[in-house]
Specification:
- One of its GO terms (molecular function) is amino acid transmembrane transporter activity.
- It is a single chain.
- The protein has about 475 residues and is mainly alpha-helical.
- The protein has a single domain, classed as Up-down Bundle (Amino acid/polyamine transporter I), CATH 1.20.1740.
- About 70% of the residues lie in helices and about 0% in strands.
- The protein is built from 18 helices and 2 strands.
- The chain has a two-stranded antiparallel ribbon with strand order 1-2.
- The longest helix has about 35 residues.
- It is globular.
Length: about 475
């Protein structure tokens, strides 16, 4: 059993067509909103303040650099999605091009990305929700407002709002993709309206003098901020996980990926430019958890703050929904391939969703958000995403040379240069992450390899295919 054995494209597509019991209910519009739901949230409402402290007024450049890495990667994703329209995203693409061991590593890596991202965002959601409640004079018991030791000098034991929101999202996803789609679409429209409201109000208070000097920390500061705000783009690849629930995946998946990414990058650049133009970047240190509110305070437009809280809550809710959605679909694909227990690929007869996987993963994410401090949750998400993006960029080059005959509804332009540029930028951003992040990342991969060699390798469904081929050859 070779560690680098691959599943043929034909068998992957056949499994997706014959074995999939998921409901096809999504079109290009739904996928675009799914992508916007995944991307716009924590990036605008939280990370803009943190990024500004590293880059200064050049924060829009940091978002552009991170966005370029994602656009290059999205072009590679789009080719894969149109060629292999099967659930599993980067995991499935790696299985077809780079081999089983690489596919397992990327699948296990995506567990890190999505699961911890859900938990991280749930903590941010809890903060904005509590801020909104305080506006109505409602205060939760202190012990139920944060994870243990999350706030120095304050005794907290459980983040109840974070736990509840993830369980609500889990319930929606378990009920079916149609219900989840409607909720996501409505919330995306509301949060985009709130962002346009912020732009319309705050743009009149921009003072160009605040943009001088534009790069106080040099290009290194811009890149460091790009590595930080890259979290803002985490999750756009979840669109590719919707392949088996898309009506016309070969046409609509590439559109959904690229449209959502371009729209969100434009909004990030505009909002971050306005924020650093209204408020000197040094002042964001005063309010890292609500930087948008700080801008409105400085502009004297407090009446918009309530709308911003609602927009942030809506934004983070859709991020939670899409992240957990992507996680369950990857587990579904890995389970169907035999690399994980069959529980994770069982589909509910009525709702036509991976019911068991949804509730198991949702419950784990809910408890993680409720019991683990935010700084411990978020430090691994970026490296997991960048690693996945790197392998997708490499994979599309490999597939071009190993299977040039495959019909491709969408072709990534400039192969191999654009995918190589995408992989290079991702690796460069990874190298700008902390050493501790790398250490924990390697520990996580080591745990995954133990599971692979003790369970997944011998239970892989590809074993049966190899046995049949061996008998036929004999």
């Amino acid at each position: 059993m070779s560690l680098f054995r691959t599943k043929s494209i034909e068998s992957l597509v056949r499994d997706g067509q014959q074995k999939s019991k998921l409901k096809r209910a999504l079109n290009a519009w739904d996928l675009t909103l799914l992508g916007i739901g995944a991307i716009i949230g924590t990036g605008i409402f939280v990370l803009t303040g943190t990024g500004a402290l590293k880059s200064g007024p050049a924060l829009p450049l940091s978002f552009i650099i991170a966005g370029i890495a994602c656009v290059f990667t999205a072009l590679a994703y789009a080719e894969f999605a149109s060629t292999v329209p099967v659930s599993g995203s980067a995991y499935t693409y790696s299985y077809a091009t780079l081999g089983e061991i690489v596919a397992w590593i990327i699948g296990w890596d995506l567990v890190l990305e999505y699961l911890f991202a859900v938990s991280s965002v749930s903590v941010g959601w809890s903060g904005y929700f509590q801020h909104l409640l305080s506006g109505f004079g409602i205060q939760l018991p202190t012990a139920l407002t944060a994870a243990p030791k999350a706030i120095p000098g304050v005794k907290t034991i459980f983040n109840l709002p974070a736990f509840i929101i993830v369980m609500i999202i889990t319930f929606l996803l378990a009920r079916g993709v149609t219900t989840s789609k409607r909720v996501n679409n409505i919330m995306v429209i509301i949060k985009v309206f709130v962002i346009f409201l912020f732009i319309a109000v705050a743009m009149w208070y921009v003072k160009p003098v605040h943009w001088q000097p534009f790069t106080p920390f040099g290009f290194n500061g811009v890149v460091a901020a790009a590595a930080t705000v890259f979290f803002a783009y985490v999750g756009f690849d979840a669109v590719a996980s919707a392949a088996e629930e898309t009506k016309n995946p070969k046409r609509d998946l590439p559109r959904g990926l690229l449209y959502s990414l371009l729209i969100c990058t434009a909004l990030y650049v505009i909002v971050s430019a306005i924020m650093t133009g209204v408020v000197p970047f040094q002042q964001f240190e005063k309010n890292l958890s609500h930087p948008v509110s700080l801008v409105l305070d400085v502009a004297g437009q407090n009446w918009v703050a309530g709308f911003i809280d609602i927009g942030a809550i809506m934004g983070m809710t859709t991020v939670l929904l899409v992240m957990l959605y992507g996680q369950t679909r990857i587990f579904y694909s890995m389970s169907r391939d035999g690399l994980l227990p069959k529980l994770f690929s069982n589909v509910h007869p009525t709702y036509r969703t991976p019911f068991g996987a949804t509730w198991v993963l949702g419950t784990i994410a809910a408890f993680a958000g409720a019991l683990i401090p935010l700084d411990k949750l978020s430090e691994l998400v970026n490296i997991g995403t960048l690693f996945a993006f790197t392998l997708v960029c490499i994979g599309v080059i490999v597939l071009r040379y190993t299977r040039p005959d495959l019909p491709r509804a969408f072709r990534c332009p400039g192969v191999p240069f654009i995918p190589l540029a995408g992989a290079g930028i991702c690796i460069y951003l990874m190298l700008n992450l902390q050493a501790l992040t790398w250490q924990v990342f390697f520990i996580w991969l080591a745990i995954g390899l133990v599971i692979y060699f003790t369970y997944s390798r011998r239970n892989a469904s590809i074993n049966k295919e190899e046995q049949v081929q061996a008998k036929e050859g004999a």
